[in-house]
């Protein structure tokens, strides 16, 4: 147990400082030191073996991908009679040939968006329908390129190229339009929505989630989380309506409204969990390290209840776009664009009323073998400041603030 190692180590250090420790006590400490050293040595050997195995596996996959890419490039050089991503197949020989005849329910089950939303995306982005369909299929399942190539009648390397190109197009053309912090009437609706959740002056809830990735070639240890798997972190602001928001760096220019409570100005702010610092524009609940008053417990509960929209939004985002749940072979430098594109598509579906189907929920999927999110540490750098004054005012005058 971690709680037992600290006093043991302290006892060992004390024995070193004492010139004549009791023989029995000194022998026990030496045996403990020897056992701990042996345990650490074995643990490091296992970690090195596992790291070496993962690296060999990654190199094999990378070599296979490079060979397939070279083959695709050579085929382009020797043939100019047709586009890069089209193969000569007769109608009916692949999945895409029959997809256009799907009814609305079948279409949405396969591509995670309704046919109307799909047509809307084609109009906004402009790629051929098959290119967009390939990309949505990969977002929804993160399947192997070979199986997707067979289903849509294209080359393996072409699938990779299409996914990258359409992903970039979604981000470049739609991100600023569909992913932004609220303002104007939408900001008023957001404040009202959180007030109905019994929390005042809130412009959004902020949270983070780990997105699995394959071990990168360069500095893989920089991406290793405490659960032992590699990931990048998505940090997002979510409104009361479970819509994905923008990142925290855009907050200060938007939140300009405030109200007074007993002479204390309470600005619009975000709400976060214990891992975030306490700021005038970012409130969080009280930690459990100290005895809390009834008012502090009520405030903490109200904030946590309002902030639950973050978990709901991430669950829907990952449930619809399963590429955010599984490790993929896509390069880590491309992952931020993939995540951003999925957030754009999430918001497009939300704004168009393109609902989330219950069977997409990965939390209730008995066949799912998904990675457990790492636990977060409580931020311990908070000091008494203006933010604490604001939190105190809300805490002890919560009902009055809600009614103002």
UniProtKB/TrEMBL annotation:
<feature type="transmembrane region" description="Helical">
    <location>
        <begin position="64"/>
        <end position="85"/>
    </location>
</feature>
<dbReference type="GO" id="GO:0046872">
    <property type="term" value="F:metal ion binding"/>
</dbReference>
<dbReference type="GO" id="GO:0004518">
    <property type="term" value="F:nuclease activity"/>
</dbReference>
<keyword id="KW-0812">Transmembrane</keyword>
<dbReference type="GO" id="GO:0016787">
    <property type="term" value="F:hydrolase activity"/>
</dbReference>
<keyword id="KW-0472">Membrane</keyword>
<keyword id="KW-0540">Nuclease</keyword>
<keyword id="KW-1133">Transmembrane helix</keyword>
<comment type="similarity">
    <text>Belongs to the HARBI1 family.</text>
</comment>
<dbReference type="InterPro" id="IPR027806">
    <property type="entry name" value="HARBI1_dom"/>
</dbReference>
<feature type="domain" description="DDE Tnp4">
    <location>
        <begin position="207"/>
        <end position="347"/>
    </location>
</feature>
<dbReference type="GO" id="GO:0005634">
    <property type="term" value="C:nucleus"/>
</dbReference>
<dbReference type="Pfam" id="PF13359">
    <property type="entry name" value="DDE_Tnp_4"/>
</dbReference>
<keyword id="KW-0378">Hydrolase</keyword>
<keyword id="KW-0539">Nucleus</keyword>
<dbReference type="InterPro" id="IPR045249">
    <property type="entry name" value="HARBI1-like"/>
</dbReference>
<keyword id="KW-0479">Metal-binding</keyword>
<protein>
    <recommendedName>
        <fullName>DDE Tnp4 domain-containing protein</fullName>
    </recommendedName>
</protein>
């Amino acid at each position: 147990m971690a709680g037992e190692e600290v006093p043991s180590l302290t006892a060992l250090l004390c024995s070193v400082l004492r010139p004549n420790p009791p023989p029995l006590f000194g022998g026990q400490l030496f045996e403990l030191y020897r056992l701990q050293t042996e345990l650490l040595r074995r643990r490091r050997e296992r970690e090195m073996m596992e790291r070496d195995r993962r690296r060999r596996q990654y190199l094999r996959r990378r070599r296979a991908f490079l060979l397939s890419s070279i083959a695709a490039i050579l085929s382009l050089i020797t043939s100019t009679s047709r586009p890069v991503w089209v193969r000569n197949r007769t109608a009916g020989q692949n999945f895409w040939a029959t997809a256009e005849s799907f009814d609305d329910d079948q279409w949405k089950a396969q591509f995670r968006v309704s046919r109307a939303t799909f047509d809307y995306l084609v109009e906004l982005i402009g790629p051929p329908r098959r290119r967009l369909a390939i990309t949505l299929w990969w977002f929804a399942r993160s399947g192997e390129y070979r199986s997707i190539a067979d289903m849509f009648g294209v080359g393996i390397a072409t699938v990779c190229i299409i996914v990258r190109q359409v992903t970039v197009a979604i981000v470049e053309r739609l991100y600023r339009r569909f992913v932004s912090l609220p303002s104007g009437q939408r900001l008023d609706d957001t404040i009202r929505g959180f007030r109905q959740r019994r929390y005042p002056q809130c412009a959004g809830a902020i949270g983070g989630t780990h997105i699995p990735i394959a071990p990168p070639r360069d500095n893989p240890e920089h991406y290793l989380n405490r659960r032992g798997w590699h990931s990048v972190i998505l940090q997002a602001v979510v409104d009361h309506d479970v819509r994905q928001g923008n990142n925290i760096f855009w907050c200060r220019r938007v939140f300009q409204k405030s109200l007074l409570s007993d002479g204390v100005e309470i600005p619009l702010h975000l709400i976060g969990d214990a891992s975030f610092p306490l700021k005038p524009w970012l409130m969080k609940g009280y930690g459990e390290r100290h005895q809390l008053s009834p008012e502090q417990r009520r405030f903490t509960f109200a904030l946590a209840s309002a902030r639950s929209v973050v978990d709901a939004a991430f669950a829907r985002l990952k449930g619809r776009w399963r590429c955010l749940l599984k490790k993929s072979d896509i390069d880590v430098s491309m992952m931020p664009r993939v995540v951003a594109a999925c957030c754009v598509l999430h918001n497009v579906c939300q704004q168009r009323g393109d609902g989330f189907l219950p069977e997409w929920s990965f939390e209730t999927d008995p066949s799912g073998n998904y990675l457990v999110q790492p636990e977060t540490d409580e931020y311990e750098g908070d000091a008494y400041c203006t933010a604490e004054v604001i939190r105190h005012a809300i805490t002890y005058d919560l009902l009055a603030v809600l009614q103002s």
